[in-house]
Specification:
The structure is a homodimer of 436-residue chains.
Chain A (H helix, E strand, L loop, with lengths): L4 E6 L3 H12 L1 H7 L4 E7 L16 E2 L2 H6 L5 E4 L7 H10 L3 E4 L2 H18 L3 E2 L10 H8 L4 E8 L2 H12 L4 H10 L8 H4 L2 H15 L9 E2 L7 H9 L2 E13 L2 E12 L11 E9 L2 E8 L3 H18 L19 E3 L4 E10 L5 H11 L4 E8 L9 E7 L4 H13 L8 E6 L3
Parallel strand pairs in A: 1-2, 1-4, 2-3, 4-5, 5-6, 8-10, 10-13
Antiparallel strand pairs in A: 7-9, 7-11, 9-10, 11-12, 14-16, 14-17, 15-16
Helix pairs in contact in A: 1-12, 4-5, 5-10, 7-8
Amino acid sequence: MGDPLRLGLIGFGNVGSGVVKALEENRELLAARCPRPLELRRIADIDLERRRPVTVDPKLLTTDAESVVRDPEIDVIIELIGGIEPARTLVETALAEGKSVVTANKAMLASHGPELLALAAEKGVRLLFEAAVGGGIPVVRALCESLAANKIERIQGILNGTSNYILSQMIYEEMSYEEALAEAQTLGYAEPDPTADVEGIDAANKIAILASLAFGFDIRYSDVYRVGISKLTRQDHKIAATEQYVIKPLATAEITEPGAVGISVQPAVVSISSPLATVGDVMNGIIIEGFPVGVVFLVGPGAGPEPTASAVLGDLMALSLLESDRAAPRPFLEIPVGKRPRITAECDCDGYWIRVFHRGGPDALAEIVCVLTEEHVPILKCIEEEREGDESGVSRVVVVLTDTALWEDIRCVVRRLGEAEWLEPDTSVLVMPRFD
Amino acid sequence: MGDPLRLGLIGFGNVGSGVVKALEENRELLAARCPRPLELRRIADIDLERRRPVTVDPKLLTTDAESVVRDPEIDVIIELIGGIEPARTLVETALAEGKSVVTANKAMLASHGPELLALAAEKGVRLLFEAAVGGGIPVVRALCESLAANKIERIQGILNGTSNYILSQMIYEEMSYEEALAEAQTLGYAEPDPTADVEGIDAANKIAILASLAFGFDIRYSDVYRVGISKLTRQDHKIAATEQYVIKPLATAEITEPGAVGISVQPAVVSISSPLATVGDVMNGIIIEGFPVGVVFLVGPGAGPEPTASAVLGDLMALSLLESDRAAPRPFLEIPVGKRPRITAECDCDGYWIRVFHRGGPDALAEIVCVLTEEHVPILKCIEEEREGDESGVSRVVVVLTDTALWEDIRCVVRRLGEAEWLEPDTSVLVMPRFD
């Protein structure tokens, strides 16, 4: 049995409590499996008074996170504060002090990951982050190890459980967006300010991280084309259902041509027979396509204290192996700072699902079709209905299903439709992803 | 760049050719990612004449596998012969010579894995086998690393693509078992002798390997309760479909009580809304349940040269990291030779689906029900129909859906039904797995 691996936890909220609880409950198993025993030595949080589902020795607790990351008697920092600052500065300090760091912080990584990874490499320590994407789904390590020999062509999936839950409630319980959001908040799936989840910010952070690893480029949060789910109506879901589709919050990253990456988070219209349609409730699901593996599909709980604890502890166990030998070589996949691809919002899809509201009378549909035709967008099907919830009875909803089309042409269509006076401004474009 | 990792391949069939092809096609990516470059130095096969989809320098080829495993200029052996002998002896020799081994050989591992792993540990080398279970699905490494902190409670899944394909064709194309098998053989999914696939031998090898890793016990192929798919009829699938079920080839391993493992491969009746029902064609799907992760579900191509090559190359890359330092500590999960659990065929399921054929006249159903009742097996539903394909018109089929019941009681029911003269001997018992 080696010397203990002395852990300092910063951030003792729900996820931090989950880690402490799992360390306790699986103590025997961890002791048997870890070459260096995991010992929690210090815990920092700004709020030491709140009630928590675990009890710890009060001597471990402090409000001074900086003293923990600088403590020479701590070997590894577990960062579970979330958000960019002060997390980034604390992690930077820890790495600079020669401590390895395990983090679940997707926002920090998607904005500053490449620099932090470079600092870790320079200092001969590790920055591990299985918990930052997909919660308990072993996707980061799968990409970096089991699938490391693959030329990854595409990663596509549902990376935000909250928005998946809201859309699932709208589809299967026929709730409005507002009702579904309120329920998600009641159940603790959504924050009081739900922006990061429903506007795709959380998923954009995650897909940027996965894309960087898979493609070996420096890709950041700000590169991601992002559309939220808050504009979708119950009627959108009903029309999709009659066409055998469901609307899912989809993150996509793919190599569109050598050196170019298409990366987006947006609601997508997904065939009910596709694997992603089966990922309901708050679950996440990730499809990885590459050569030689073909397609693999990973599903699991994308958030929550327990699944996240599984990922954090897996990383700590890896450190307990690696830290027995500081000179151990670096991982296969790294994110080279500044090695930038060309970035687009393009996505290799079967077509687009364009929904507009109009008050334009009987010619309106023909005029919409005309715009698409002029922009070379091939149309497969048009659906026109009265708009639900419109008491005047004059507003109508049109859905156009297109064949494959250039993203540029779709943008032109949206711009021209946005200029038409008889159309309401909120045109929604949903991709219809291809599943081979 | 370190010294090359000199590879010796034994077994240059379909999978071996897939590995050679992927080494070639992803050469650049592998060179960039591996601390020690992967260099294929020798290839052994009994048949050097057959046509292969790749061309190699003839100087690499030999029919003498033993000379390869003993070659001091080879660092790592890739074993893709399959079957127990001569693979086991060659792998043993390679490990004894101080070479690490990467293998896809489930039969060898499920019968001799613990001893071979112990030998590898003794010699300070590695025996890696991501490719042995689930083809390209990163399940072995997920269990051993990302999910290593979990107390695994159950592993359940479809681990044999051939039998999944045959059942899928019976369900969706309404083929007979014989037609579906013939098609699988034409497509190369089934061997001329399909026994290993359709009788559950292949899946039993795989679930024994996963159970050993997940539960830390020495569990072998011979421990697995095994029922094949060859007795299922088209009518079984039709009756299942009317009840909103599909029949899937299911492998299960679970901790039934401390120190006891229930492990089985058998056709199971699965709700069409369960995740495993979506795993069609030749795909594999594996559900892992544990604390703290909850449930994760991994899906992908379970066989074939390319997915298997992905797994083999992932293991070779891991060696290229590890072999830079022979003293690197051992992996978390090991299989302790001789640490045996109590083994049962029990499975925590919602109930059983018992199908019998009878010629017993109008009282037969009542007599069947009576047997179940006397054996304390609670009945949820009985279905009786004319037996399809019976020209005499007197044979009938009865399906009984039970509530949860003891496996022992089910065995008594099957034994007693087997003794009834008016019943045909081929009673089928299918489990109805629980998905939480």
